[in-house]
Amino acid sequence: MDSTHREASKTKLFKGAAVLAGAGLFARLLGAVYRIPLANMLGDEGVGLFEMANPIYFFLLSISVAGIPLAISKMIAEKKAVGEGNAARKVLRVAVVMMALSGLAASLALFFLAPYIAEKVYRDPRAALPLRAICPSLAFMTVMSAMRGYFQGVQKMVPSAVSQIMEQVARVGFMLLAAALLLPKGLEYAAAGAASGAAIGAFAGLALIAVIYFYVRNRPDYRIEPGSGRAERSGTIAFRILSLSVPVALTSSLASIKSVVDAAIVPGRLAAAGFPTSEATALYGQLNGMAFPLVYFPTSIIAGLASATVPAISECNAKGDMEGIKERAIYVLKLTSVIAFPAAVGLFVLASPITNLLFGRPDVGPVLMALSGACAFLCLQQTSSSILSGMGHVGDPLKSAVLGVTVKIALEFYLTSMHGLNVKGAALSTVAGSFVSVVMNLIQLERRLGFKVGYAKAFWRPMLASLVMGGIVYLTQGRVEALMGAGKVSALAGVGIGAFCYLLALMLLGGLNPDELEAIPLVGRKAAALSRRLGSIGGKRRC
User: Fold this and answer.
1) Is the pLDDT of residue 8 over 80?
2) What number is the average pLDDT over the span 207-232?
3) Contact predicate 148/69, CB 8 Å
């Protein structure tokens, strides 16, 4: 593969990642905002009934989807790389049938089990109505995930992004409307109306991405050459989809397991350290309800990059282009570090101002400070896992994740009960566990490639720029608070100063060259022009 083609491929990867990240960020923000009017409308009891539908729904959805979009995108990318359009379309057909059947089965199971779950699990028969209202979305979401996997496989991310935005907009809009209209009939009906928004949103997203598929499938930029070889049998395709998706699903499920482990261990170990039950619960709330969401927020941006990585790596893997895999792997890890390192340093330096800004709780700052390092490692774990999955080694990220969770649990049990650490010990155990997972992924990547990757090339510029930013913010935040007071305005000022200093340092160090900056939506052209004027040392460099 020549250098021009490789640069074009990296630019396409970056743009695709930016599109998915933007859509994911919009969806997350809208998903957070809708809770305010819904809570005002339904009150605590109504919101409680609505929220009862979500855990079961997401559990069944995870089982039904089971990492299949990643498997589909990988298989489609491989077929595209060798020009086998007929085989690629058969993969999509088999995947859609599989997803439709699994989604329908999950929907029917939830519909018929809803009264039992409501009465026996939740101890509130009224929850049956919201559970039944949300179940149709399972059938729509599973099929939509297959369609998104296809488009990601041909490295066209806009259809997936617009379907995600359409899904969330339709969901939130219908949710609030239905809840308002049904509220006079009772809280359970209003909660069911809100829950039905998930089905409407999923249907809207599916309808849009299906229309896009039939409209663009024969366009030159979307079309895959038919190919001369015979497509695999449907059973063989289905088996390969499952073999690729199950390890990915198990890896993803470990996040839920970690939450359960935290809930089981942390309050108990705090109690063993002498904290009253109420205080132990409050400390756990600081960790899980305030610090963790802030640390996990950057991963929603990185998720777009991770989704774009799999087909990009799979394309090179299908052609046996190990050098191309190496270049793209370093590039992806560099993009990850550009986002993850400043996020981690910023959360560390501005921990108390940020928790004061968002929660009115500056005392949560030390907990966030202890947990901040996990932000970088969780992001790197996400993309390094995608690189390995794109190469076909889906079992490697699972092994790394299991080892990381094991380390976390062992340390958490010991550190949380230590005086002087308490809940900060649980935070530090999460940092250690995620670090172990990342290191194992990177070791496995070098082993699979058969040569040293040289990760310093990907990490040092963003890391140095982040440290410069952290130092400046640390030295100036006291003066900012002295001028503005230790409130929300000074916190926002600190974030603004940090962002400006980081971007300036990154451009001066050549962390992203002008061509890479230009690929950023909305602000890319201006950032690239500024980088060129600053004489960035990385302007002619490759990743």
Assistant:
1) no
2) 75
3) yes
DSSP assignment string, 238-269? HHHHHHHHHHHHHHHHHHHHHHHHHHHHHHHH
Prediction pTM value: 0.79
Q: pLDDT tens digit string along 523-542?
A: 566 666 766 676 544 444 44
Question: With contact defined as beta carbons under 8 Å apart, do 150 and 92 qualify?
Answer: yes
User: What is the DSSP secondary-structure string of 336-352?
Assistant: HHHHHHHHHHHHHHTHH
> Can you tell me which residue has the tokens 């046996």?
320
pLDDT at 240 over 90: no
- Nearest CA to 375 out of 487, 248, 466 is that of 466
For residue 15, what are its two tokens?
Answer: 């743009």
Q: What is the tens place of the pLDDT at every residue in 54-81? A: 777 877 777 777 677 888 888 888 887 7
Tokens 């900056």 — which residue?
517
* pLDDT at 116 exceeding the cut of 70: yes
Give the model's pLDDT for residue 539.
41
Alpha-carbon distances of 422 from 208, 349, 360, rounded to whole Å: 49, 21, 22
| Nearest partner of 354 among 512, 153, 499, judged by Cα | 499
The pLDDT of 310-338, averaged and rounded, is 85
* Residue 511 predicted with pLDDT over 80: no
CA 424 to chain centroid, in Å, comes to 24
Q: How far apart are CA 532 and CA 41, in angstroms?
A: 52
Report how far Cα 375 is from the mean position of its chain's Cα atoms: 12
Phi, psi of 450 (to 5 degrees): 85, 10
Q: 118-129 burial, b if ≥16 CB within 10 A, otherwise e?
A: beeebeeebbbb
Q: Which two tokens stand for residue 345?
A: 């340093």
Q: How far is CA 505 from the centre of its chain?
A: 27
Kindly indicate the confidence band of residue 406, based on its pLDDT and cuts at 50, 70 and 90.
very high
H helix runs in 391-538, sequence order:
395-415, 423-449, 456-484, 488-509, 514-518, 524-533
The amino acid that residue 341 corresponds to is: F
Structural tokens at position 173: 């809009």
